[in-house]
């Protein structure tokens, strides 16, 4: 007999959803408001979105964000995947220690990460700019890729790889035709998560960005200090839309990988 949940749990869940999503919904709604006065609805308009395309500073910040996100995602995906593959064969004792080190950028506060990287760049006399932002984003994005790919490897098992080796496949052939297709959904999902984290990051970027490397989150922060405008609401709405889309795509590839695994396990 299925146990019914307590009604208070449902009410608690509803209140939490309202607390989390109502502020986001307000930003989206007022990005279409036909007035600059916050909280005073004067009609529906797309003018604030079209004005973003004409703003040179917004386009510069967008270009910086996309450049940083793209380069850091490629590097983080490669390094995170290689780390997951290499640590897979370690003994239990060393594997636990290395896993802890790889998980550290995920659990450490962003302000500590940003400050530590700032100190490192200063000690190495590296001028702050787009390069330092990319390095910083690779540092924390790599861990997210590692977590996703490691989970995929753990669920894959070694039966197919051992079968390929028994049939005479070389190490490269086994990786190319067996391992890589099995973990590719995890790699794609990890890359999408890394891209999302890089695109949305503010705290770490705030510490390591230079004068000519302002990203969209930093630009939004600077504008909000002068007051919340409809253009900022529109820009935040676009970031929300992109972030949600990428997260849904990442979840889709993860579920697709699980579905492929279950399908291959069915008896013929």
UniProtKB/TrEMBL annotation:
Compartment(s) where it occurs, according to its Swiss-Prot or TrEMBL record: Cell membrane
What is a single Pfam family found in this protein's UniProt entry?
Answer: BPD_transp_1
As for membrane topology, the entry says: Multi-pass membrane protein
Q: Which InterPro entries match?
A: Bact_Polyamine_Transport (IPR051789), MetI-like (IPR000515), MetI-like_sf (IPR035906)
Major location category of this protein: membrane
Its domain of life reads Bacteria
Residue intervals of the ABC transmembrane type-1 domain: 62-250
Gene Ontology annotations of biological process type: transmembrane transport
Q: A Gene Ontology CC term for this entry? A: plasma membrane
| TM ranges | 12-32, 66-88, 100-121, 133-154, 175-196, 202-222, 234-254
**Keyword annotations of the record:** Cell membrane, Membrane, Transmembrane, Transmembrane helix, Transport
Task: Report the PROSITE patterns cross-referenced here.
Answer: ABC_TM1 (PS50928)
Name the Gene3D superfamilies for this protein: MetI-like
The record's annotation in CDD domains points to: TM_PBP2 (cd06261)
Q: Which family does it belong to?
A: Belongs to the binding-protein-dependent transport system permease family. CysTW subfamily.
Q: What is this protein called?
A: ABC transporter permease subunit
- Which organism encodes this protein? Paenibacillus dendrobii
